[in-house]
Amino acid sequence: MRLMVCSILMSLASLSWALLLLFIIMYTFSIVFMQGAIMYLQDPTSSREADSIRDGVVLWYGSVFETMYTLLASIVGGADWMDVVRPLEKISMVYRLLFSFYIVFVVIGVLNVLTGIFVERACEMSGLDRDLVIQTQLKRDETFLTEMTRIFQEADADGSGTVTWEEFKGYLENDRVKAYFTAQQLDAFDARTLFDILNDGNGDEMNIQSFIVGCQRLKGLAKGVDLVAVLQETRLLNRKVKAIMRLLDGGAPACVATLETCRLPSKTSGAGVFGDVG
User: Fold this and answer.
1) Hey, which CATH number is domain 1-130, 3.40.1570, 1.10.287, 1.25.40, 1.10.10?
2) Where are the domains of the chain?
3) Is the pLDDT of residue 9 over 90?
4) Long-range contact list for 200-205, CB < 8 A, 24+ apart?
5) pLDDT tens digit string along 122-171?
6) CA distance 252 to 108
7) 160 with 53: CB under 8 angstroms?
8) Of 228, 224, 123, 212, which is closest to residue 163 (Cα–Cα)?
9) pTM for the whole thing?
């Protein structure tokens, strides 16, 4: 109820412009139909059916207001448009085609645009209202929690309250289960990887808390907090690598000198040995 009232209030401006467009369209077609009927009735060479046509024109097209009211009733179900167009089609088939075009254009085009405007405003309102957003999210979380609990109970074949790797593997061998996981935005292609991620690497048994928490974190695309955490860890590793590289660059000459110092006595000692041997 609250959403409907707020949506109507927010869509009043757009709805007013749409109704104005509908009014202009109805007024234009009313002038065309009335002008054609009046010109036919004023023509002295009109057919003998002029009396019957006059009765229909007076009934449906007596004035601009009556004509617009008739056109409105034709598109909202207040009158059968086949009965409404009958006096005009006796004048000319062109008016029949024109009236058919009016019905198709307004019903399929204009009225659907009005419905789309209202639905769009309702969606925007549901996204802006804090209470509605919270209520919708809580309902989604509750539904997801119920579904994941049911899946865990189905996977727990022995009813021990925990799911082992073998039970989880056997449960995911069912194609319908894989399809359901995919529908819940959970990638079940690699069962072992999924099990390790859900269980956080804590052995080959998983309790219901680990399963539900893991499914909530894995559901859908990467969340903003996950991306920020990865970015921070990457920056931290980058700083550590740069620090290590600076230490290596600063200690490189000393290391080279040490190696040279160690190498020279070796050569001298080697020569002396060979000399002694010689």
Assistant:
1) 1.10.287
2) 1-130, 156-218
3) no
4) 204/164, 204/165, 204/166, 205/162, 205/163, 205/164, 205/165
5) 676 666 566 666 777 788 888 888 888 888 888 888 888 888 888 888 88
6) 79
7) no
8) 212
9) 0.47
pLDDT more than 90, % of the chain: 8
CATH match of 156-218 with 2.30.230: no
| CB-count exposure of residue 269 (10 Å: 0-12, 13-18, 19+) | exposed
Helix, strand, coil tally for the chain in percent (to 5):
80, 0, 15
Chain position carrying tokens 């000692």:
269
Report the residue count for the chain.
Answer: 278
pLDDT (tens digit, 9 = 90+) per residue, 48-60?
Answer: 566 677 788 888 8
Token couple for 171: 């449960």
| Residue whose C-alpha is closest to residue 56's, from 87, 94, 93, 95 | 87
